[in-house]
Amino acid sequence: AALLTLTRKRGAATYAQTLQNIPETQVTTLENGLRVASEESNQPTCTVGVWIEAGSRYEDPKTNGAAFFMEHMALKGTKKRPGSAFEKEVESLGAHLNGYTSREQTAFYMKALSKDMPKVVELLSDLVQNCALEDSQIEKERGVILQELKEMDSNLADVTFDYLHATAYQGTSLAHTVEGTTENIKRLTRTDLASYVDTHFKAPRMVLAAAGGISHRELVDAAKQHFTGAPFTSKGDSVPTLKRCRFTGSEIRARDDGLPLAHIALAVEGPGWADPDNVVLNVANAVMGRYDRTFGGGKNQSSKLAVLSVEHNLCHSFEPFNTSYSDTGLFGFHFVCDPLSVDDMMFCAQGEWMRLCTSTTESEVERAKNYLRNAMVAQLDGTTRVCENIGSHLLHYGRRIPLEEWDARISAVDARMVRDVCSKYIYDKCPALAAVGPIEQLLDYNRIRSAMYWVRL
């Protein structure tokens, strides 16, 4: 019993101690423009990844889907390690390799034992520089992606958010889906994929990030040794300029009365990544809360909208979101409900928005700030989340923002700031709306627009 107590005390740390004991993120920029960043810890494992400023926003209507296609191809072998040889080498390390593509970034990362970090860097550099792009593999992956697209069509939440982007950013690159269209996937060629890599996979647009039991000096040495191929020799390559994606207050409705539940998302234009208003909006979202029928708590939840949802059986779930991009964003909420509850749920959700603008209280804000602090510290669980945090921060902000700074920004928020910032982005603004499923009861756009303000006497 005494030993258990001692172990418990040794493992306990206050919130302030946790923030102070986080290792500093070290960043080194190589001659070719590649940024190498790491956070050292005493973990027996490490996660190393390459974050690239490339995604569906950098595509045009004819090449939409190229980034997602390349993510698939990059994991299928290189010129040095064709096909199964690459997979076997990863498996021989007992490592886990993964990747993802979003609208503004592409990432490939690997989790392995810390002692294998130099080999992991070599494999990642080979993956990025020397993707084989064999015709047979391209055709095989084309079939895989087309099947994925069919499966994605059944995920109504993802479909709703794709529609939301399509209507909010009409005619711009942010309206593209990450996966691309079926027609594009069928016709993209090896030349298209190679051209995409040549244009976007450049050293100044990349971050090599690592977290775990590694040495920053050894990471830099490994980067200098392996990230020196053709894509990394031309430091002066110009970065494709992103066109401003203008937000449009409009709607897309895909009515299907054969579906059991309605999916609805409403959003206004939010700020870009670097805007300090994001912290306040995240606090506002925490005040609004989230709800799912599987949650406990019932009528005793802190979220007023959750309490209404329980009392009046308004929805199956709802969740606010704040999706940021380089120069714009989507701030809104998404809910899933029965066909006969659509109007009531929309009325209550918009009413909660108006309350955020006019009557948010200090006690609600304090509770929301504690929620955000908890979510922030949860990012420290495991090397993969820390590594992703490092890579994304350097692409979004140009530096890793320490948690102490985030905590200071959160602490500075008060109820007046929440009311002012929410009024700035929400009050009397034209929203974008996407609705899928049995949505006959959803009021017309003008009625929804009229609920974006309250008449004050």
UniProtKB/TrEMBL annotation:
Residue runs in coiled coils: none
Keyword Cell cycle carried by entry: no
Boundaries of every Peptidase M16 C-terminal domain copy: 188-371
InterPro entries in the record: Metalloenz_LuxS/M16, MPP/UQCRC_Complex, Pept_M16_N, Peptidase_M16_C
Chain ranges passing through the membrane: none
GO MF entry, a single one: metal ion binding
Gene Ontology CC: mitochondrial inner membrane; protein-containing complex
Quaternary structure, from the entry: Component of the ubiquinol-cytochrome c oxidoreductase (cytochrome b-c1 complex, complex III, CIII), a multisubunit enzyme composed of 11 subunits. The complex is composed of 3 respiratory subunits cytochrome b, cytochrome c1 and Rieske protein UQCRFS1, 2 core protein subunits UQCRC1/QCR1 and UQCRC2/QCR2, and 6 low-molecular weight protein subunits UQCRH/QCR6, UQCRB/QCR7, UQCRQ/QCR8, UQCR10/QCR9, UQCR11/QCR10 and subunit 9, the cleavage product of Rieske protein UQCRFS1.
Protein name: Cytochrome b-c1 complex subunit 1, mitochondrial
The species this protein was found in: Motacilla alba (White wagtail)
Gene label: Uqcrc1
